[in-house]
Amino acid sequence: MTEEEHINGLKFRLKICDRILSGTNMVLAYAKLEDIFIWRYKNNLIDDLNTKSIEKFDKMKSLALGNKNLNERKVAFVKSIKLMETILGLEIYDKASER
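RE: above sequence
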């Protein structure tokens, strides 16, 4: 798959998460996000890989997936996606949320 196909798949998943923020939808969105990360890493498109940012992403991801409170879950999910966007140097979530 190309990066564009991965990004389009992620945008689709994020649109679904905007409507129904279930654990399954988040896991599928995170899987697509990690596919993009791996693709960009393999193709040397990530300039500065900061381990602290990766750790912070993992913590936000765990908080989003492990939280029963819908508002806190949404905040953690959005923050984790935004953090990974920063790591990848992409803007995905804003474009996916446009209606």
